[in-house]
Structure formats: C-alpha cells, structure tokens
Amino acid sequence: MPYLYFEHVPGASTKVLSDLGYALARRLADVQIVAFGEHGKPYFIANPYCHFSLSHSGESFALITHDAPIGIDIERLRHADFKIARRFFTQDEQDYVDGDNFRFFEIWTKKEAYVKYTGEGLSRPFSSFSVFKLDGLVFESRIRDGFMISICAERLKERVYLSYRSFQRFNDKKIKS
Question: How much is the pTM?
Fold first, then answer.
C-alpha cells in the first residue's frame, strides 16, 4: 500500500527538507544506504522492493513509499505563470488548463511526478510528453493545506494513505544541516 507523508517545517531550508525526507525514507525502509540512479533518482540498494519519491516546496516536504516504482511532486498553490504552460505543456495540456490556476498546478505536478517516476528527472523535456497520453500509468492529484500533490505509478489499486504524523515520531535525533 502506498503511504504518503506530508510535513510542514517552518523556517527549514531546502537542504534540511531533503535531509528530513531521506532520513524518514531510510527509517521506514529500515536501511541506511541510499544510492542514486543515472539521473539522480534515489533508491535503496539493500531493499529493492521499497520504492520512494521525495518532493519539497516552500517549507514543506512530501515522501511517498510503495512496493513498485512511484513518483511524487508537491507545489505550493499560488498565482500561476501561464507563460510556463505555453513553453512546457503540450497543446492538449494547454487546452485543459485554459487559464485555470488549479489545473495549471495539477498538470505541472503530474509532469514532475512522472519524470520522478521514470527516474529521468529534468533531463526529459516537459514539452516532449503529455500526461494525458501515458498509457499504463495512473495519476492521483489532490489539494492539501494549500499544496497540489500529484502521484504517478503503474498501479494505485489500493488507497493512498496520507500521514500527518510528525517526523519527530520517527526519529528523535536532530538532523543537522
């Protein structure tokens, strides 16, 4: 079953958010060594059946774990720059967005979640694919606490469990930045 952890850490830097996310992932998988694929996708060498993806925006981070490859992205909702849609979205995605702020962030986070799922990261141009034409993949998007959260996976037959449990419940040691 996929588990989604979402945490707000006031005043945290990007590095601290990444460190917290990786520490939580290691704790959940009960392994310490994180390796990185060709384009930077993290994975556990000692536990190939535990897949995870990490994203951060503002002072918040999200981590999702699953027993199959998965990708996640979060973005704080704000006024969208629709010039970005013209540059990075395919025509069908632009038509879907049509000036709607929520739809803009839905498409953007789905694109980010997809390239995290594949492990290609930003090496894959966003304009080279449409999230509406990716056969065999499932996307789930939701708005939570002012953030758009999107997940990409081959299957999400089970309900995605959202956890607001504090990071401190998983690790009582302070993370140094």
Answer: 0.82
